[in-house]
Design a protein that fits this description.
The protein has 2 domains: about 130 residues, Rossmann fold, CATH 3.40.50; about 140 residues, NAD(P)-binding Rossmann-like Domain (Rossmann fold). It contains 10 helices and 12 strands. The strands form 2 sheets. A 6-stranded mixed sheet has the order 2-1-3-5-6-4, sandwiched between helices. The longest helix is centred in the last third of the chain and has 16 residues. It is globular. Bound molecules: 2'-monophosphoadenosine-5'-diphosphate (ATR). 2'-monophosphoadenosine-5'-diphosphate binds next to helix 6.
Length: about 280
């Protein structure tokens, strides 16, 4: 059977093995998918061993996404734009590095949630790896505008400066949180790590347009601090990142197997397990 795995540290909490096992059942693909713990300085050795034992591909999670980028021989455009790799595919011509996080976000928004981005005002919070991974797929949807806001303004400026000509019709700008006062957005995406510290970005009141959607890339039982704040401040819908998790997995599965799994049942089951 073809072997796949998610590699990370820590990795025992990962839901990817269950997600890919469900995809394999549903599509009738014969494969195994396990969780692979690598020591912090042992990524390359672990990947080489897995490949030499017949491994066909890996998902890559914290803290190895930059190591995976360096390890890949070739990269998809979205991996190059993200500067990080969450999916490796081992083929006869070498190692392909892809990044399915951003497209997973966009598919969750547009397909699962029915939230079109085209013609909308989009606000992306954060300027780290998670935000960078989302840039190209978001721009490809041709929102009216894409605003990057971050605690450190220079990092938001630098991220915006990476995408000067990709979508000339999209108004791209960067600022700090305070400068958002008086502006309105249709879709607000939290890509900061604030939720990890049980915190929310300090946003000015009144940024949510009527019918707006607030999205947190993180997920947990109940609202994240960001989603709770967005609800209080008038966001019409608040959604966590569980769908993004399932959709990025589906994109990896598609890359490896050439088959797109149906994600709705897997997402529903995960939601049931997490509760809320
Ligand atoms: P990731 O790869 O998950 O994006 P990262 O590269 O460490 O992680 O980036 C973390 C992001 O979360 C940054 O945008 C960071 O803001 P700074 O660039 O100003 O550090 C943001 N962040 C982390 N904690 C935050 C908090 N409590 N409030 C607001 N932003 C926060």
């Amino acid at each position: 059977m073809d072997r796949y795995a998610v590699i990370g540290n820590p990795v025992s909490h990962s839901r990817s093995p269950a997600i890919h096992a469900a995809f394999a059942r549903e599509t009738g693909q014969r494969l195994t998918y396990e969780a692979l713990l690598a020591p912090p300085d042992g990524f390359v050795d672990a990947v080489k061993r897995f490949r030499s034992e017949g491994g066909r591909g890996l998902n890559v999670t914290v803290p190895f996404k930059l190591d995976a980028f360096a390890f890949a021989d070739t990269h998809t455009p979205r991996a190059l734009a993200a500067g990080a790799v969450n999916t490796l595919a081992f083929g006869p011509d070498g190692v392909l590095g892809d990044n399915t996080d951003g497209v997973g976000l966009v598919r969750d928004l547009t397909q699962n949630l029915g939230c079109a981005l085209h013609g909308r005002r989009v606000l992306l919070l954060g300027a780290g790896g998670a935000a960078r991974g989302a840039m190209l797929p978001l721009l490809d949807e041709h929102p009216t505008s894409l605003t990057l806001a971050n605690r450190s303004i220079d990092k938001a400026d630098a991220l915006a400066a990476r995408f000067p000509a990709h979508a000339p019709a999209v108004a791209l700008d960067a600022c700090g949180f305070a400068a958002l006062a008086g502006r309105r957005f249709d879709v607000v995406i939290n890509a900061t790590a604030a939720s990890l510290a049980n915190d929310a970005p300090p946003l000015p009141a009144g940024i949510y347009a009527p019918q707006s959607l607030a999205y947190d890339m993180m997920y947990r039982r109940g609202d994240t601090p960001y989603l709770a704040a967005a609800r209080r401040d008038g966001a019409a819908r608040v959604v966590d990142g569980l769908g993004m998790l399932v959709e990025q997995a589906a994109e990896s599965f598609l890359l490896w197997r050439g088959v797109r799994p149906t994600t709705a049942p897997v997402l529903a089951e995960l939601r049931r397990q997490i509760g809320g």
